[in-house]
Design brief:
The chain is α+β, with helices and mostly antiparallel strands. About 40% of the residues lie in helices and about 10% in strands. The structure holds fe (ii) ion.
């Protein structure tokens, strides 16, 4: 298994990791053989890369942090909540709580949680994919911070609905290509308050979750909105969600032309440690993201190319890799593994995603 950019896909390749659409449908399932039609479809919806089988390199074991079944359900639930609210009708909080509980149970059951796969999403995401991802990343951070079950649920609900106020804005405003007028800007700045109003009144939603919607654009140094709160004045959940949401937005910006990899997004976040983000929480967050994702191709200092096969939570820059090309670029047969933690003379120089 390995990651390849969509423009390098050839008909006949086999999908190794399912691709999920933004509203809870499977676009390409694991084991499907790709034909010309699929390649065009992937390009049309703007998926930048996919995981394919590679018999020369061999099998790689990997786990989705959340099962596809639960992720699909979470996407459907988010879509239904938004549809109901747009129609000015109520939504079923029990369905939301059920999927939140399922996600938390799955995450609690995994040991050594690490986000070790590259995210794949369509550019036409209407926000559902982003909301679900923000929730998953926030819960993993909460787990690493030692949160109990009740705290995890409140955090998860707040994270899932952090941008719910956006549905009250005029349709199309966020996607507008032309510069916004001062009035339009003003309207966008209101979405935290609008989201808070929706959640605050909703029975079964904790007031703390509602505060995530209200405060997710506050910044650690007080330069955020709506109130310009500083440091600990911002509730802890909102400080977590601010990091998770911006990270997810950043990797979601990736396109076929310009891919944003986890380590690049992390570098960006670190630049704003203590400015936008709580430095202590950011440290925890950085620890849950594998900087060298499983399935990516890396160049070692010895000049060989290798595939990352196992992430290393303790020493993120020292995963287990499988060498498959020698320094001259010829295939190594059979490929062999190096555990970078046990072999300090080797290190990763860079990720080479573009290599076919
Ligand atoms: Fe927002």
């Amino acid at each position: 298994m390995r990651v390849i950019p969509v423009d390098k896909i050839k008909p006949g390749m086999v999908v190794e990791r399912a691709i999920i659409g933004s509203t809870g449908e499977i676009l390409l399932n694991r084991g499907m053989q790709i034909d010309v039609r699929y390649i065009q479809r992937l390009k049309d919806i703007g998926i930048p890369l996919i995981y394919v089988r590679d018999d020369n390199i061999g099998k790689v074991e990997y786990d989705e942090v959340v099962s596809n079944r639960t992720r699909l359900e979470a996407l459907k639930v988010s879509r239904d909540v938004v549809t109901n609210l747009r129609l000015r009708s109520d939504f079923d909080i029990r369905r939301v709580n059920k999927v939140v509980d399922d996600i938390i149970s799955e995450l609690v059951a995994s040991r050594d949680l690490l986000v070790a796969l590259i995210d794949m999403r369509a550019v036409n995401d209407e926000g559902f994919y982003h909301s679900v991802n923000t929730m998953v990343l926030s819960v993993i951070t909460g787990l690493a911070m030692g949160f109990n079950d009740k705290q995890l649920r409140q955090l998860a609900c707040g994270a899932l609905f952090h941008d719910i106020g956006v549905i009250m804005l005029p349709p199309g405003l966020l996607k507008k290509q032309t510069p916004l007028s001062p009035e339009e800007n003003e309207q966008i700045l209101k979405h935290p308050e609008l989201g808070f109003q929706i959640l605050r009144k909703k029975e079964g939603v904790s007031l703390l979750s509602a505060h995530v919607a209200l405060q997710h654009h506050e910044k650690y140094d007080g330069s955020g909105y709506p109130r310009g709160l500083v440091g600990d004045q911002i509730c802890e959940y909102a400080r977590i969600v601010a990091i998770a949401a911006i990270y997810d937005n950043f990797v979601g910006l990736g396109s076929e032309k310009q891919l944003v990899l986890p380590h690049q997004a992390i570098q960006y976040l670190i630049k704003y440690s203590g400015i936008w983000f709580d430095p202590e929480i950011l440290k925890v967050f950085v620890g849950i993201i594998a900087v060298f994702p499983i399935g990516s191709v890396v160049l070692l200092n010895s000049g060989v190319q290798a595939l990352v096969t196992r992430a290393n939570k303790k020493y993120p820059s020292r995963p287990v890799v499988r060498v498959f090309k020698n320094r001259m670029g010829a295939r190594v047969a059979p490929p062999f593994e190096i555990d970078l933690e046990a072999n300090p003379e080797y290190f990763i120089q860079k990720i080479v995603v573009e290599e076919p």
